[in-house]
UniProtKB/TrEMBL annotation:
The lineage of its organism: Bacteria, Pseudomonadati, Bacteroidota, Flavobacteriia, Flavobacteriales. It comes from the Bacteria. Pfam families: ADH_N, ADH_zinc_N, GFO_IDH_MocA, GFO_IDH_MocA_C3. Residues 85-139 form the Alcohol dehydrogenase-like N-terminal domain. Keywords: Metal-binding, Oxidoreductase, Zinc. Residues 390-507 form the Gfo/Idh/MocA-like oxidoreductase N-terminal domain. SUPFAM superfamilies: Glyceraldehyde-3-phosphate dehydrogenase-like, C-terminal domain (SSF55347), GroES-like (SSF50129), NAD(P)-binding Rossmann-fold domains (SSF51735). Its cofactor is Zn(2+). GO terms for molecular function: metal ion binding; nucleotide binding; oxidoreductase activity. This is Zinc-binding dehydrogenase. It comes from Maribacter algarum. Belongs to the zinc-containing alcohol dehydrogenase family.
Amino acid sequence: MKQIIQDLKNGETILEEVPVPMVKSGCVLIKTSRTLVSLGTERMLVEFGKANFIQKAKQQPDKVKMVLNKVKTDGLKPTMDAVLNKLNQPLPLGYCNVGEVVGVGKGVTEFQVGDRVASNGNHAEYVNLPKNLVAKIPDNVTDEEAAFTVIGSIGLQGIRLLNPTFGETMVVVGLGLIGLVTAELLLANGCNVIGFDFDPEKVRIANEKGIVAINPAEGTDQVKFVESYTNGIGADGVIITASNKSNEIIAQSAQMCRKRGRVILVGVIGLDISRADFYEKEISFQVSCSYGPGRYDEEYEQKGNDYPIGYVRWTEKRNFEAILNAISKGTLDVKPLITERIPLKDFDKIYGDMGNSKSIASILEYDQTKAPVNTVSIADKSFEGKKGVIGIVGSGNFTSSTILPNLKKLNANIKYIASSGGLSSTIMAKRHAIGNSTSNYKEILTDTDVDLVLITTQHNMHAPMVLESLKAGKSVFVEKPLALTELELESIIAEYNAQNVNVSVGFNRRFAPLAQNMKKLLGNDNTPINIVATMNAGFIPADVWVHDMEVGGGRIIGEACHYIDLCTYFAGSRVKAVCMNAMGVNPEENTDNASILLQYENGSNAVINYFANGSKAYSKERVEVYSQERTLVMDNWRKLKSFGFKGGGNASSKQDKGHFNQFQALIEQQQKGGSPIIPIDEIVNTTKASFAAIESLKQGKWIPVN
C-alpha cells in the first residue's frame, strides 16, 4: 500500500510503498477512501523536516538540553548516533481519515466489516486504529464531508472548554480550517461570532457563513473593533486557532476580553504572557488538548477503556460522533471549505510548495481497487541453502539503533523484518538492504529459509512469539525478558525440550569486553565472591508501558534481569534465593527503586541496586567484585580497575555493552552448531530470580529460586 511520510533528516515528503498493517486486538482495519490534509499542522511538520540541524535545535531547546546531558554521560559519538537514528525515523503524516472497515480485531463489537467510518488515521491506503478513535458515518454524510470529523473535533473541544452560553460574543483568532469550523459551531451554539484573519478568501467564506469576519491588514484595530462591537464591554471569550510565533496574539486576546472573560488556545502561538493583561480583568486562560478527553490516555485509546458517560460526557470519540451528527443535520456545512481534490499519487501537488499554499482544505482521493499485501520485497537477494538466515520481529528504536548496526557489521543474512504497522520495518529494510518488510510476522515462521528468529517487541509479546517460533522449528533470540509469568516460562521450557533448536536471551552484559576481562581475572575455581552492581537506570514516567506489569512487566523483570545474569556469570553458580527491598513506605510491585540481594548455590553473594532516582551525570552502570583479597571495579563499561591482582588487570573500552560479541557468537553458533551461547538453565534461573524478586517484595521475605 502507499503511505505519505515525512523524512525528518532531509525534509523530503515521500509516498512510500509499505505492507498493509495487520488488524490488532481492540482495533479495526480501514481501507481508506478519503483523507483531509490539515495544512496548518502538516505545514509545521514539513517545514521542521526541511530545517537544518541548527534550526531544528532552536525549535526544540528542551531536546538540546537532553542531548547535552547525554554527551556528558555517554560521550559525543553515541549521542550523535542516537540523534541521527531518531531523525532517521520517518513521521507518518495525516490524521483525518475516512474509509470502509475491512477487518475487525478481537474484542471489537461496535463495528462490522463494511461500515463506513471516520478516524484519526494517517494518509495511507489502509490504517489500523483502536476502536475509541473510530466513529461510524451517518448514511447521508459523504466521505468528503466525513473527512472533516477530526478537524471539527479539535475545534469542538476548544468550544467545550470555552463553555459558551446563548447570546455571548465570541472571537475566533485565525480563520484557517479549524478556525472556520470553530466559528460555525459557535454560531450553532447561539453566539455572536467575530473572526480575524489576514487571508481575504477565508474572511469571505466566513462572512458568507454569517460570521463577522475582519481582515486586520485592511487597517482595522482588532481590540478596538471588538470593544465597539460589544458597546465597550469586550468579548465574553476568545478561541485562538492561529499558528504564529508572535506574542502579540495572546496579548490582544486578553485585551479584547471583558472582565473575567475566557481565552482558549487551540493553535500554536508565542506565549510570553503579560501578567497585567490577565490580572486586571481576572481573565482565565486554558490550552485545549486535541480532540477531547481520552487523548494521549493509553487506557482509553489503546486499551479501549471508555470513560463513564455520567462523569465524562464528551470524550474524543463522542466528539467525533457529535461532529458527524452536526454535518448530517446541516448545522455544520464543510463543503464550501474544500479547495481541491487530488489523487493520492499526485500528493506532491499539495506538499511540493505547502509553505505558499492558499488552500483551505485539500482532499486526497484513494484508489480502493488494490488488494491488501502484507509483505513487500525490498532487496532482491537469494537465501536458499544459506545457514543462519534471520527474520526480525520488531522494528523499534532498539532494533534501529543497536541490533541492525551490529548485524550489519557481521554481514548477517536478514531475509525479513516485521512491524505491526509495516512502515518502520520498511524504512529499516531499505536502510540495511534487508530482503523483505512484512506486517505479518507469521510469514517468517512459515519460511523454510529462516532458521533464526530475533524477537524485539514489547515485553508481553515475547513469550507467545517465542513459543510460536519454537513450534515452527526456529531457533530464537529474544530481547529480555524471556517471559513475564511463571506459566509462560514453563510453557517455553516444555516446548524447548521438545524441539531441537536453541533459545537465547539478550543478556548482552556478559559478552562485554570488560566483563570478559573480569571473568578471566576471577578464574573458574568456584570460589565464593561478593558482587555489588549498580544500575543508575534513570527516571521513566509512570505512564510508560514498561511500568505496566501486564505489558512491560516492570523494570525489575524487564531490565534488572540484565544484572542478575551478569552476577550469575561472574559467580559461576545458580541463584538459590532472592530478597528484594524497595524504596518507599508501601512500594508497589512495579517499583524501579530497589535493592536485590542474591544468594548463590556456591556461597557467592550479590547486591544489585536498581535506582531510577539518581543523577544522569553519574555513571549509568557500575560493578564491583570482591574475591580473595582482590577487587575489581568496572565503571560504565569504559574503565576497569583492578586491586590485588598480579600483573594488573586495568583496562579501558569504548562504551561497549557486548551487543556485537553476543550477536557474533549467536550467528556462529547457528551456522556452525555447538552449545548455546548462554546455557538454557542459566537463562531460566535468571528469569525465575527476577520473578522471585517481585514475590519477595510482596511477602517481605527471602524467596527460594527452584
